[in-house]
Batch of 3 targets.
Target 1
Amino acid sequence: MSSGLIPFGWFQVFRLGLVQMALGGIVVLTTSTINRVMVVELALPASLPGLLVGWHYAVQMSRPRWGHGADAGGRRGRWIIGGMIALALGALAASGSAALFAFNPMLGIGAAVVAFTIIGGGVGAAGTNLLALLAIRTPPDRKAAAAAIVWIMMIVGFVLTTGVAGGFLDPFSMGRLVTVTAVVGAIAVLLSIIALGDLADTSRGAADAVPASAKPDFWVTLKEVWADRQTRLFTTFIFVSMLAYSAQDLILEPFAGLLHGYSPGESTRLASMQNMGVLLGMITTAIIATLVGRSRALFMRKWALFGCAVSAAALGVLAMGSVATGDFPLVGAVFTLGIGNGLFAVAAIGSMMTLASAGGEGREGMRMGVWGASQAVAFALGGLAGATAIDLVRAVTADIGLSFAVVFSAEALTFILAGLLGLRVGTTDADHKSIPILPAEQWTAE
């Protein structure tokens, strides 16, 4: 933790979690519900919303710049709230663009590109600096638990939004979609402003702002951060694991609608069930990680592999259900997939929070930005690859069920690879024995 700063207690962590919950509530509407509307209600190719969501992740390649800007100039609160406002406006524009498709497809595409550009910038500015603030102000022995709390609350945002919004979306209409999105965005921004308060502006940088001439160069700082082996290794793990996760993000609700006859409200509630599984997996991991004590680092790496294995198994079941006839336990398979995602996510987040504050002060935002950019690229490629693969296999085979089976199977294999990579975080290349990421005196203090 940075010197000279009062560490966050659990109440302050909870307040940051409320902001993350608000962020997740807006994002889930854009990547899940609006995507489903484009594919099912508007009968657009799955690759189109895949390209749009991929573009919003491409915009998040700017995350290192957002993090570096707050590292150098302080005032993370302004970056976070500004990002949340942009995110809410972008989501509202995205829902409006979906309505435009029915009247003027070209105008709808143009509006959607602008909307998802704003969404990408908002998520990058708010998300990067929120996590950097958490890394700066949380003591080493609380980082894993604090990260779990904040991420669990984001999943709560997913669950609440998809569950409640799903109820208000039926009977479905485009006007109802725009109204629900506007209300969710307004509530999220207001909650973020109240919850954040002055927490961010008491972080390093706001109190000790440096002259512009003394601010570190962005490219020099990026080069220094990337020179660290653990940063590079963890970046690779994030990329592969998020690639596996994101490939199903854009196709799960269309899968439920096309093969199982779910309505927009029903498929949105199915997404809520998945997020409830993620929540259960995260809570389980956080509790067990707290109990294992000093072996926490090794536990996190092995638990990440276990979570990836559970996710892979659930995806295998979904692949079989794509081509099987008769009744299929779709809700149970999706819920199990969520549990697996939650198990490996907390393990990854705990390592991320520890690594972010390692290697000296003033680089937390940059490191979070690098990992956020890696996640963004993986989500852009994964979401686009999943959606495009559905269209390609369907064009060749004229079999929509086989299309989903191929994509789900590929995701399962990628999750296994991600788990194996996760075991290498915190190990040496020479003998693969565990080494602490933090200095020894901080490690033993845990």
Target 2
Amino acid sequence: MNTTYFRNLVAGCMFKTGDHQEVPAKYYIGLSTTDPTEQGACTEPVEMNYKRVPFENITTPDDGYIKNQEAITFEESTGSWGVITHYLLFDAESQGNLLLYGRLKDPKTVDSETIVTFRPEEFKIRVVNAEIE
């Protein structure tokens, strides 16, 4: 799902309208224990060695898809992060704006000494057709 911020960012940048922002230089993947909102609210784990990881080494677009070419691996947890239900894509390593989010196919309980990894080509983002309403 796209946040309202991201939809406005893309439309503003593509068509150079309104008060559009610059395209972020880097992107970061995060995890959430709650269903994020279109307004960008989410619940990331607090401490216990949790931090967002860079989203880099991605494929060139193919039919609107980009994928991670290498594994995306979070640091080993030092305590419980809870049940991770969603992935998040931000424009900053901390704070920043939530851009995209989605539900994990299989929620994961993260206890102490757990490493969360997305295998190569497992993390996919797709741009879909625009609609006229």
Target 3
Amino acid sequence: MSDTPTRKPRRKIRGSLPASTFDTPPVVTRHTLDLPGRTLEYSAHVGMMPMKNDNGDAEAGIFYMAYMREAAPDGAPRPIMFSFNGGPGSASVWLHLGALGPKRVATMDGGMPPPPYAVIPNEHTWLDETDLVFIDPVGTGYSRPKTPEVGKKYWGINGDIESIAEFIRLFLTRFQRWSSPIFIVGESYGTTRAAGLAGHLINRGIALNGIVLVSSILNFQTARFAKGNDLPYILFLPTYTATAWYHGCLAPDLQKDLKATLREVEAWAAEGYATALAKGDALGEAERRDVIQRLARYTGLSEQYIDETDLRVQIHRFCKELLRRQKRTVGRLDSRFMGIDAIAVTEAPDYDPSIAVIMPPYTSAFNDYVRRELEYRTDDVYQILGTGIKSPWDWGSAGDGYPDTADALRSAFSKNPHMRVFVASGYFDLATPYFATEYTLSHMGLDPELRGNITTGYYEAGHMMYVHGESLARLKEDVSRFVEGSVRKG
């Protein structure tokens, strides 16, 4: 499989303009991608979409990269999928060059490859099934507000959803795609955005065929280790177990079969552990001893450590403690990866080794790819993760409690019963644990007739499961079936 510019030269249809201009014609190039038994011919459109205020003045620009194939032979419009990552403050590069796009970053399952970094043809691209539009919310990628003060309008849960919804409306209009089956895919906080978008869009007459949620978090109560909130301790426990299993820290009988071990832990977490934590100081000494022994068995941590944490192991402490004797830490985004801290006696890791593994390859490869192959040239910094947001994120009224967009998703289901959702989770994801996702889905209050519209997939990888070769292939297969079924059902 290879891109073939020498046999079929790419043709730039329109010239590029500075990325700081909020409304410019996109740079369009033509490409081919050789895949087993077939060749994909597609165009890439790279540009900036204006965000206008009530007076019609452009006050921000949203950068996008879109890939489109020729229309289907029968004349039916191709599906279109809008993609974004999370953060808040993350650009769309991870899904773009990790799983969906026609090119992906060359990575290694076991860690970071040596530099220099490059993109390679993606044999698992989703472009087979749907056209792809990668969106960088304001303050990420090359997307910019007119001023940081204007940016505050977009840097919050509501302003973010409204601006991405407006981008989708404008894109459907400018590219004449209103008759296409419409999908969105979000990762991490992007799933929070996707759920909120589903409710926002349907209220404005835009019905989705499907949503793909990658490493989902809709209800933040499931992940906030706050005083009085015991829910995360329960919901993170199976992922603690999976992590200990991966690093060989469990008893021999628990190391035999990961999935069987997780089923055992899930059952105890939801019943025995949840009941014990609910009792608080009323927990009897014998009961407490049993919980300590169980937690030590299921986490690979010592009974003394479990006792001293009052039966509650916070995520960053777990990442530091599990391999402390080896002077290693485990990753939050992907607990398969190990880090080395300056000293071993601290309470939390110095850094997340799973971010350290992926940040240089994706940063370098994207900056080369967007200029060399997509011919979009600018001196602006491509803000990949967090550095482009210049004010605290505005959680609105949810900031007083726990942000939750699950009800917006439930509302969208009620108003559009044809919509389907696919949820992808990694067993080694300590940022958005799979058991917390299951809890959220089962507490949405979804009508029984609509519960079958949600399907799930599980992968032996972390938050970005697509950096694991086997999981990347399986994710593509699962999504292909999902898109085909959603279009047919729709």
